[in-house]
Amino acid sequence: MQQEHNYIYRFRNSQKLLEFKELENQEIFFSDKAFQNDAFEGNMDLYWSGDEVLWTNFFNNYFMSLFLILFSTSKPTLLTEKDINIRPYKILDNMLPKDHVFNNLVQSIFNDNRVKKVLEFLSTEYKKIKKDELLVYLSCIHKYFLYKLISTTDLKKYIATEIDFNSVINVSETNSIDVLMNIIENNKNVDKLALKEKQKILCFKSLLSNMDYRNILYIENIFPFDYIEKLKQLTYPDLYISCFTDNCEQNSMWGNYADYHKGICLMFRSEKNSISLENLGDKNGYHSFELRKVNYSDNSIEIPFFESLGQNTHNETTKYWFFWNSNMSKFPPVQEIRNNKNTWRNKYHTFMDKLILRKDTSWDKEKELRIYDYDMLSEFKNNINFQKYRYKFSDLHGIIFGKNTSDEHKQKIISIIKDKLAKEKNDNFKFYQAYDINEFGKVQKYELTLLNESIRT
Questions:
Q1: What is the mean predicted confidence (pLDDT) over 2-30?
Q2: CB within 8 A of 395, min separation 6: which ones?
Q3: Which of 184, 279, 296, 426 measures 20 to 30 Å from 391, CA to CA?
Q4: Is residue 166 scored above 80 in pLDDT?
Q5: What is the distance between the alpha carbons of residues 173 and 151, in angstroms, rounded to a whole number?
Q6: pLDDT in tens, 140-160
Q7: Which residues contact 98 (CB under 8 A, 6 or more apart)?
Q8: Pairwise CA distance, residues 239 & 243, whole Å
């Protein structure tokens, strides 16, 4: 059972607090993980483990995504991960009839004995494939797929460029699928191959904007890497977080989050490890958000991809991942997902909580508490108001001025609070001043008694 906190604290840059009217509007901003202080936070350690049905669907979905991006080779702007469609079936199912040459090509590819051997290798004993190893296999079969697409005459009309791929990309059927077969059959050192592949890709990424035929080179060299990275979007929803702490005495916190002591610290009452907030995007009233403790660990969170397709609809996952040519996957976790959705859902949310609440041990002095919300319907992306939440003024116990908070900012903050006290009841509100560090390295504060008396008169 979590400890109950009488007070929780939120450090803020006072200039931004005033500029964005956070104090005036009683707002708490939820930021996405791209704006968290730890750039590696929320990184999931995906791995792939499954039977031949799952792996066939994996490569089939990849092949469809590759086909779709060929439409974009003549774009004037540089192709990026954003241009990769990881749900290609939504387009191709409606675009191509069942007897289309593309669908016939798919069947011929997966009837190729070499491809069958690759699928057999990957699914033997439900091998656990991490993303770096997967990149090696995918980069090889990628050239085979690309060769098949650009050498199929009836498909050339779908490619949105007049450039001859064969004059730019040195690919051949033998030079790709056989390389992969050689890696598999001779137990090549995949770690070394993965490192070389990633180094090549990162080099291309840094130089691509200055290269001729840059979009074609993107498809040839970078597409497999970006595709794997983008697959995360099929697993867990975008997350938006607001951070608090139960400790306002850490000197480093004032330095990192309160503008080197020029900012402030908001002090909230929290009786049951929760805070009541209203989302400004939907304005459906106040809801209680549980304050969750962050777990500090150096261990990454491993996520099984085929068992975590939570951002697809159930029908999509079943049709495009769990079945191939009317054969259902026999992978035990898939059977569990199909037969016991509640058990799967509990496991899914357990993994989600681990991802949300894990942070590297180098941050453990923060004693962070989190509240968070999910962007299930992409509302946060489309309207910034969904990232803003209003707290009740009665829950704000006080404001602690930093040691170096400017007099100008203090006066503006005091003025805002006086106006609020004249309109709303908050008998417990107090101002404090951070002033020194004690022998234990803790930041000390004292109550500004005269100020607190004057703001109510």
A1: 87
A2: 268, 269, 270, 275, 276
A3: 296
A4: no
A5: 10
A6: 899 889 888 887 767 766 665
A7: none
A8: 13
Burial class of residue 8 (count of CB atoms within 10 Å of its CB; 0-12, 13-18, 19+): buried
What pLDDT sits at residue 181? 83
289 three-class SS: strand
CA–CA–CA angle 411, 241, 337 (5° rounding): 165
**Residue 401 pLDDT greater than 70, yes or no:** yes
Question: Residue ranges of the domains in the chain?
Answer: 7-41+236-298+357-454, 44-234
CA-nearest of 365, 368, 393 to 268 is 393
C-alpha dihedral, 110 to 150 to 225 to 215, nearest 10° = -160
CA distance 420 to 423: 5
For the chain, helix (H) and strand (E) counts, in that order, are: 18, 20
- Report which secondary-structure segment, H or E, holds 174: helix 174-185
- CA nearest to 395, candidates 2, 1, 8, 77: 8
How does 331-362 read in b/e, with b if 16+ C-beta sit within 10 Å?
Answer: bebbeebeeeeeebeebbeebbeebbbbbeee
The Cα-based distances of 24 to 12, 63, 336, 390, 417 in angstroms read 14, 53, 51, 10, 8
The three-class DSSP label of residue 45 is strand
Using only C-alpha atoms, the chain has a radius of gyration, in whole angstroms, of: 27
Q: Is 261 helix (H, G, I), strand (E, B) or coil?
A: coil
- Both tokens of 206, joined, read 């840094």
pLDDT of residue 456 exceeding 80 = no
Residue 301, pLDDT score: 86
pLDDT tens sequence across 183-200: 888 877 888 888 888 888
pLDDT of 76 strictly over 60: yes
Q: 50: which strand partners?
A: none
If phi > 0 it is left, if psi is from -120 to 50 it is alpha, else beta; for residue 259 that is left
Structure tokens at 146: 């690309």
